[in-house]
Please model this.
Amino acid sequence: MDLAIISVAALENWEGSQTSLSLRMREAIEWIRIARIIGAPILQVPASFEDASLLVSEDEIVHQLRLLADCGLPRFGSDESTVEIAYEPMAWSVRSDTWQHALYIKRRVGRPNFKLCLDTYHILAKLWGDCSSPDGRIPGGDAALERSLFQTLNLMKAEDVSFVQLSDAALAQPPVTIAQLREAGKHPSWYWCSKGRCFPYQKSLGAYLPMTDIIRTWLIELGWSGWVSMEIFHSSMAQQDRGPGFWAFHGRTSWDKVKMEMAKDVRSARL
Model:
């Protein structure tokens, strides 16, 4: 099979952890070694969602992330490949829960291989979608998303990005209740992330997030031309008759729909 591994996602709640830095560094070095062996160019690191990391100063967070990024750079005189660190702001991260703050941290880290992983679900779950609301929306979400996309083109460059993840979400019917969230002990976006994420425009699973504008901004207007990952975390994945081939087919169908929507935008702009 002609497959390429895009990234290794092995580190969680890494920066600012209460675990000793030396132990975390040993773990990171080992995973970067594995990434090089399997030809994966990226180590994906979600921004910490551990409350205890807020006890650590921003300067220390930046210091730790610099050390991590340095591990991904080739040692002097070696033929090692560079491994990028893809720092991902998640909707429930406790410090870098927006792309704006993650970009600020990226620039403070200041390493050429320290970049961002942009995920449509996390941006839209922060600004627009709410699984606990009857209509699935955050009030003022359209305006908030418009501002965010405007800022993207003014503050970010394609070179700031390591890779892009495209993921939609199903409208929660009925809405997720406070009791469900309390029982799970999770932020609403985190709770729904593991149950209701689907491929872009996958209407058969109830996809409803406003994907077109954010995809157009990232893939066309920002000029991103690197890796794009199609993501799904849906409760129906537990069904035994829905194996890898089933989801690969629907992922490909979703990507074709993305290309069709982007082509419509290009044609409209020419008229």
Remarks:
- Residues 26 and 197 are 33 Å apart (CA to CA).
- The chain is about 45% helix and 10% strand.
- The beta strands are 7-8, 42-46, 84-88, 114-119, 161-166, 168-169, 197-198, 228-230, 233-234.
